[in-house]
Amino acid sequence: MLAKRIIPCLDIRDGQTVKGVNFVNIINVGDPVELGKLYAEQGADELVFLDITATHEGRKTFVELVRRIAQNLDIPFTVGGGISEIRDAEALLAAGADKISINSSAVRNPQLIDDLARNFGSQFVVVAIDAREAENHWTVTVNGGRIPTDKELFSWAKEAENRGAGEILFTSMNHDGTKKGFANKELAKLSENLTIPLIASGGAGNMEHFAEVFTTGKADAGLAASIFHFREIAIPDLKHYLRQRAICVR
Amino acid sequence: MKIVIIKYNAGNIRSVDFALQRLGVSATITDDHEEIRSADRVIFPGVGEASTTMRYLKSHKLDQLICDLKQPVLGVCLGLQLMCTHSEEGDTTCLGIFPEKVKKFVALPENSASFKIPHMGWNSVSDLKTPLFAGLGEDDYFYFVHSYYATSGPDTAATCDYLVPFSAALQRDNFYATQFHPEKSGATGSRILGNFINIKV
């Protein structure tokens, strides 16, 4: 049976992990390769590395980092942040990335999804959507949730799929950082409307939240950052818990 | 031992090379006919579209070359599909090493929320045959990413069930192939690559 995926997300600035504290078993928690390997050994199914560097120099560092990740990691990984042109994606593919994630650039230029899918295949293209709910309307936002757009969550997700996205990564800005659980109602609606896999993000606070997102939320994968980095949940414990709840995990 | 990875217009060939390096083995990525023919092991990886890739193989005369190889050959993902007779992707005539056909996954409306396409992620396989799976069992998971699958038949060496039972691995004579990506399947995947290198000829 296809296993539900657990995906830790690492924020990278100038080639170093931003979060991530106090891991006893590794020497340099700042090194994304070391941290990534640790998560892989603990049973993470995939990893996401998000480059939050704004500078040109930092971007070059990131591509070099992606190469080092590809050499050292034996599970699939997605990279995102600042990809707005085919040649950005090309550099990351050449460095060994399995998938790329695009967000604001896809909202500004939806044709980018078609172009990336045609050039590199749908399996390479994850479209990340940050959306915020107000008065029962889910507005797609860009720039880390700061800027609302004229797009609506459900229609934009479907459009991204039709344009060739291989996966949708949905973050609810209402739930992100609250640790009160994922946006399960919206996730279930998305999952039923989409034919491609759905990654849930935003709101994970405990192990039960993951069980809920895979049952009520009908998500194919669950992504989280700080609860893993701050060791509030250990991945082996989470997998054990989900298995006991009859949810298929690796 | 000389290991060659066939170079063609496919994505992420590097990751197979990196996986071999992690096993302490070095490989050559090449489309040179003599280099390929003289190798002890040949890996035919692939992420891409069937018809464009077959056209590329033909234009570089790699199609007949692959079929004539006598040493152990391992096809991965699209590599497996191209070693079958025909693919629905681009209505493509393939190499015909295995008698199986390649079809597109179709989800029924009532189960489309449970069976997304592409089949993406970690899945277990059953009825394991061939030395490739030595030391591995039906509780091991492998990483898959694909929208097309090879049907089951006499050469099926492992079965995966997703919407339909399909060939997760195939084997005939010196030809081996996996639909999953051993280079991305953690320790179990490394085991597959190690087993392939250690196959007794």
Structure description:
The complex is a heterodimer of chains A (250) and B (201). Chain A has ten helices and eleven strands. By secondary structure, chain A is an alpha/beta fold. Chain A has one domain (5-244): TIM Barrel, CATH 3.20.20. An eight-stranded parallel beta barrel of chain A has the order 1-3-4-5-6-9-10-11, surrounded by seven helices. The longest helix of chain A has 17 residues, at 56-72. Chain A is globular. Chain B is an alpha/beta fold and 201 residues long. Chain B has helices at residues 14-22, 33-37, 50-59, 62-68, 78-82, 186-197, and strands at 3-6, 27-30, 41-44, 73-76, 86-87, 92-93, 101-104, 119-124, 141-146, 148-150, 156-162, 164-172, 175-178. Chain B has a seven-stranded mixed β-sheet with strand order 2-1-3-4-13-12-11. Classes of the chains: A alpha/beta (250), B alpha/beta (201). Chain A binds chain B through residues 1-3, 5, 40, 45, 70-72, 74-76, 93-94, 96, 98, 120-124, 166-167, 188, 191-192, 194-198, 218, 220-221, 250, and chain B through 11-12, 14-15, 18-19, 21-22, 47-49, 107, 112-114, 116-124, 141, 143, 145-147, 161-162, 181, 183-187, 189-190.
Layout of secondary structure:
The complex is a heterodimer of chains A (250) and B (201).
Chain A (H helix, E strand, L loop, with lengths): L4 E9 L2 E2 L14 H11 L4 E5 L4 H17 L4 E4 L5 H10 L3 E4 L1 H5 L2 H10 L4 E10 L2 E6 L4 E6 H11 L3 E6 L11 H10 L4 E4 L5 H9 L5 E4 L1 H4 L5 H10 L6
Parallel strand pairs in A: 1-3, 1-11, 3-4, 4-5, 5-6, 6-9, 9-10, 10-11
Antiparallel strand pairs in A: 1-2, 6-7, 7-8
Helix pairs in contact in A: 1-2, 2-3
Chain B lengths: L2 E4 L7 H9 L4 E4 L2 H5 L3 E4 L5 H10 L2 H7 L4 E4 L1 H5 L3 E2 L4 E2 L7 E4 L14 E6 L16 E6 L1 E3 L5 E7 L1 E9 L2 E4 L7 H12 L4
Parallel strand pairs in B: 1-2, 1-3, 3-4, 4-13, 5-7
Antiparallel strand pairs in B: 5-6, 7-10, 8-9, 11-12, 12-13
